UniProtKB/TrEMBL annotation, chain A:
Residues 93-283 form the ABC transmembrane type-1 domain. InterPro entries: BP-dependent_transpt_permease, MetI-like, MetI-like_sf, OppC_N. PANTHER family: OLIGOPEPTIDE TRANSPORT SYSTEM PERMEASE PROTEIN APPC, PEPTIDE ABC TRANSPORTER PERMEASE PROTEIN. It is a multi-pass membrane protein. It is found in: Cell membrane. GO terms for biological process: transmembrane transport. PROSITE patterns: ABC_TM1. Keywords: Cell membrane, Membrane, Transmembrane, Transmembrane helix, Transport. The keyword Cell membrane applies. This is Peptide/nickel transport system permease protein. GO terms for cellular component: plasma membrane.
Automatic annotation (TrEMBL), chain B:
Residues 11-260, 351-595 form the ABC transporter domain. InterPro entries: AAA+_ATPase, ABC_Ni/Peptide_Import, ABC_transporter-like_ATP-bd, ABC_transporter-like_CS, Oligopep_ABC_C, P-loop_NTPase. One of its GO terms (biological process) is transmembrane transport. It holds the Pfam family oligo_HPY. This is Peptide/nickel transport system ATP-binding protein. The lineage of its organism: Bacteria, Pseudomonadati, Pseudomonadota, Alphaproteobacteria, Hyphomicrobiales. It comes from Mesorhizobium qingshengii.
Length: 292, 676
């Protein structure tokens, strides 16, 4: 009968912490979340203020010191035209940290709308839209990117749109399944019994209750988006020179590894990995806090 | 397995204290609880939810959750000190001498393992292997009166009905011939007819077995039928204990007195006065208690009660934790029983339903959820809908509301005007005229919205109010369901079940409805809260002249509120008539069985009618009279071949049965069934 109380069940207690405060409280006690947050904030700091504390101009070449190994003057060494790798890694966070979050935001907004529509209307609407989304998901991002670049030309906007739209169906699928469960609850029937419009029911009644899964999925997608941006840049479809972007740097230097100039690639690769890990730790923490 | 030398008592709890750690603080749940259960005795533990009943059950076998700890006292099981057992000895004790049966058998059984395997596993733990274990398992299933054990062994839990699952759970509990059986609300989730069967089974098994029983339930009537002695738990303390019959007939603690008064009994009806309630709330877990724990809610309490905590007074064979136990029954009513004016037998029907059908397509079969239902309802009247789960009560309600479109052909008329079958095609006036209070307020109230938003949105949409007028009406409405301003700012999750249901009622009444459908509105609530909600519904009805369609499996509750009753079986009305006629009989054999299944407090053992088997599938209903497969009064081939019409036996009272009315009267007089 009575479940084991995990919070004080005083029936009339109106002074409990609100749900948001409770989530924040458990986030701040989550080591996973805090570790991830520190990593992400470090890179955000670099993106915002990197040029002020980078020891060199990341774009300035110095042919005499080209391909110098790591030393006291150049901590991470220099690349083939003598640019300081350390400064480039720090400033290189800027483009990826603009493009990836914006792409994710686009995916979250479009995916939430699509998920609400398919989950709320069900039936034929769901069948048609879901099949289209599935077909879309079956096309690799790279091919979409290639086509988009041919059509729109290379720009950050293209990258944002390509990644945003490729991720939207994935978020839509998560939202749809959460909405399908909410749809069965009686408050939706109660809304119908007030002749509420479909828009009101979707966005005012259901949306607030499916925020937690959307939040988790969006953070997870951000990790993938960072990876996707780096990949596209590496392949030349993404961020364009002369940006010190990590993916781009790896792309222009990876031929050097064979010659033993590992430092031109390794630090950029580590930067990408650490950012992805940081975001994933944050996502894990958020997931844990929301599903306690 | 050799049993140790039998101790005098099967279970002894001495000064047991248990606390749960919540938000960094230990909060007391059980406070110096002492009780003993003798060998072969059945002991009932009753009390409202949150008073610690389940914690007792978990503590006995040291199954407390991670945040729970035993902070004092001793537990002795068959003379063994449970606190001193190491992990292995504890495992053996759990495997061999104590068994538990929980409320939800669906969760107690592993969904992916066949019943047979789950049963033989228990014997294999005891060293019985192969065919011998199989035979023992079949014998166990026979013992719990499962008629076809070999086929049940092959099935998965989800292929069994709730009643069958609970029998299997009981069979598993009994497999090792435990000396102690703990039943934690074993029938709470079951239909009354199935509950009656399971209770009968437990009663019969008691005769065959030596096991002592700890029976935990919020249902006083069930405990009164099953147990020798009963303990009443309040805020983790035993407040009264004694032989069941004595405690329930002559309670000596105001809490017991009040609990018993909350129940609609002896055919009490809304026009004979309101139910009594218990004001206030159970102290929260871990609350510091000064004096008597019940003092805040007790009208008898004086300064002594608030300062001096009462001991358990020994009243000769029984105990009461009340300073004034000798006058506990003088407890004044918390709610005046002021009789509402009798409803005017008047006016044209507010609702008229004719030939309503609903057919679902289920795997290529037609599932007739509602078949040919016709009835009408007058203003200010309550129509009670009763029947087992699967009888179509909720589907019928959803058809009326337009949430599900009915089949072509039937008509629903509201105040003389036909209602469109689909909600979207109904006018705003029609929509606000018919509203619903759902069973589960957690599902019905949007958890993201504040109470203020929930009610004002309804006022805006249904009453077309805004601004000052809305604010004024909101205040009226909140008062009329007895909520206060401070409840408006909070989200539903911060309210108790009873308060949430009041919010749902306020929302339903926002547009001055003509009809409110109440779908089991009190089934998730404690009796004291249930009484308050039923009173509120009765008050609102006499004030607003609204009609109710009241769905409940609790016949005493239906009887309290209803003017008319419709008994549904497989989507068909089997009996329809004024509430008193339906309850006092003569009634349809199905109604008779439903009434007979209700456990009663007064323990007058009448010849009980038991329904065999389960409600048949609606995709393949029996031929002729759909009830013939289970009917105890079946008269012959005619029942199997012809569906009897719903014929008017007396003015306004119709019965769907081949047995003539006079004959039913004669048959049912033989077994005097004084209704619940």
């Amino acid at each position: 009968m009575s479940a084991i109380p995990t919070s004080s069940p005083t029936p009339d207690d109106t002074r409990q912490r609100g749900p948001l405060a409770e989530v924040l409280f458990s986030l701040l006690r989550s080591g996973t979340f805090l570790t991830g947050l520190v990593i992400v904030l470090f890179w955000v700091g670099c993106a915002l203020f990197g040029e002020h504390f980078a020891p060199y101009d990341p774009l300035a070449d110095d042919i005499i010191n080209a391909l110098a190994p790591p030393s006291a003057a150049h901590w991470f060494g220099t690349d083939q035209i003598g640019r300081d790798v350390f400064s480039r890694v720090i400033v290189g966070s800027r483009d990826i940290l603009t493009v990836a979050p914006l792409a994710t935001l686009l995916a979250a907004v479009a995916g939430t709308a699509l998920g609400l529509i398919t989950g709320y209307f069900r039936g034929i609407v769901d069948d048609v839209v879901s099949r289209i989304l599935e077909a879309f998901m079956a096309i690799p991002v790279v091919i979409v990117a290639l086509l988009a670049i041919v059509a729109l030309g290379t720009s950050k906007t293209t990258v944002i749109v390509v990644i945003g739209l490729s991720f939207a169906p994935i978020i839509a699928r998560t939202v749809r399944s959460a909405v399908l469960a909410e749809r069965e609850l009686d408050y939706v029937a109660a809304a119908q019994l007030r002749h509420e419009s479909a828009l009101h029911t979707m966005f005012v009644e259901i949306l607030p209750n499916v925020i937690p899964p959307i939040l988790v999925e969006t953070t997870v997608r951000l990790g993938y988006a960072i990876f996707a941006v780096a990949t596209l840049s590496f392949m030349g479809f993404g961020i364009q020179p002369p940006s010190p972007d990590w993916g781009l740097s790896i792309s222009s230097n990876y031929g050097m590894i064979g010659g033993g100039f590992w430092w031109t690639v390794l630090f950029d690769a580590l930067a990408i990995a650490s950012l992805v890990i940081g975001v994933n730790l944050v996502a894990d923490g958020v997931h844990g806090a929301l599903n306690d | 397995m050799t049993k140790s030398v039998t101790a005098e008592n099967a279970l002894e709890l001495a000064d047991l204290s248990v606390a749960y750690r919540v938000a960094g603080r230990n909060r007391a749940v059980l406070r110096n609880l002492s009780l003993t259960i003798g060998q072969g005795e059945a002991y009932g533990l009753v009390g409202e939810s949150g008073c610690g009943k389940s914690t007792v059950a978990l503590t006995v076998v040291r199954y407390l959750p991670r945040n729970g700890s035993i902070t004092g006292g001793a537990i002795s099981l068959d003379g063994q000190d449970v606190m001193k057992l190491d992990a292995e000895a504890l495992r053996r004790a759990r495997a061999e001498s104590v068994s538990m049966v929980y409320q939800d058998p669906g969760k107690a059984l592993n969904p992916s393992i066949r019943i047979g395997r789950q049963l033989t596993e228990i014997f294999e733990l005891g060293g019985i292997m192969g065919q011998a274990a199989q035979d023992r398992a079949i014998a166990m299933l026979n013992r719990v009166r499962i008629s076809d054990p070999t086929s049940v062994m092959q099935r998965y839990p989800h292929q069994l009905s709730g009643g069958m699952q609970q029998r299997v759970a009981i069979a598993m509990a009994l497999a090792n011939d435990p000396s102690m059986l703990i039943l934690d609300e074993p029938t709470t989730g079951l239909d009354a007819t199935v509950e009656a069967e399971v209770l009968d089974l437990i009663a019969q098994l008691r005769q065959e077995l030596s096991a002592s029983i700890l029976f935990i339930s919020h249902n006083l009537a069930v405990v009164s039928n099953m147990c020798d002695r009963v303990g009443v738990l309040y805020a983790g303390m035993l407040v009264e204990e004694g032989p069941t019959e004595v405690v329930f007939n002559d309670p000596r603690h105001p809490y017991t007195v009040a609990l018993l008064r909350c129940l609609p009994r002896g055919g009490q009806r809304k026009d004979q006065g309101r139910l009594d309630t218990i004001p206030g709330f159970l102290p929260g877990i871990g609350a510091a208690i000064k004096g008597c724990a019940f003092a805040d809610r007790c009208a008898l309490a004086d300064d002594r009660c608030r300062t001096e905590s009462p001991p358990l007074y020994d009243l000769g064979g029984r105990l009461s934790r009340c300073h004034y136990h000798e006058r506990a029954q003088a407890l004044p009513r918390a709610t005046p029983s002021n009789v509402a004016p009798a409803p005017r037998a008047a006016a044209a029907p507010v609702l008229r339903v004719a030939g309503l059908n609903k057919t679902y397509a289920s795997h290529g079969h037609a599932l007739r959820a509602v078949k040919d239902v016709s009835l009408d309802l007058r203003p200010g009247e309550t129509l009670g809908l009763v029947g087992e789960s699967g009888s179509g009560k909720t589907t019928f309600a959803r058809l009326l509301l337009g949430l599900v479109p009915p089949d072509e052909g039937g008509t629903i008329e509201l105040e003389g005007k036909a209602l469109a079958p689909r909600l979207a095609d109904r006018s705003d006036d029609q929509i606000k005229a018919m509203q619903i209070v759902f069973q589960n307020p957690d599902s019905a109230l949007n958890r993201s919205h504040s109470v203020r938003h929930l009610i004002s949105r309804a006022l805006k949409r249904l009453a077309g109010l805004s601004g000052k007028a809305l604010e004024a009406r909101l205040n009226d409405l909140v008062r009329s369901v007895r909520l206060t301003d401070r409840h408006l700012a909070v989200k539903p999750r911060q309210l108790s079940g009873g308060l949430k249901q009041r919010v749902a009622i306020a929302r339903a009444f926002a547009g001055d409805p003509r009809i409110v459908v109440c779908d089991e509105p009190t089934s998730a609530l404690d009796v004291s809260v249930q009484a308050a909600i039923l009173n509120l519904l009765a008050d609102l009805q006499s004030k607003e002249d609204v009609s109710y369609i009241f769905i409940s499996h609790d016949l005493a509750v239906v009887r309290y509120l209803s003017d008319k009753i419709a008994v549904l079986y497989l989507g068909r009305i089997m009996e329809f008539g004024p509430s008193e006629d339906v309850f006092s009989g003569p009634h349809h054999p199905y109604t008779e069985a439903l009434l007979s299944a209700v456990p009663r407090l007064d323990q007058t053992e009448t010849a009980r009618i038991r329904l065999d088997g389960e409600i048949p599938s609606a995709t393949n209903p029996p031929s002729g009279c759909v009830f013939h497969t289970r009917c105890p009064r079946k008269i012959g081939a005619v029942c199997e071949q012809q569906e009897p019409p719903l014929s008017e036996a007396q003015p306004g009272h119709s019965i769907r049965c081949h047995i003539p009315y006079g004959e039913l009267a004669r048959l049912q007089k033989a077994v005097v069934t004084e209704p619940a």
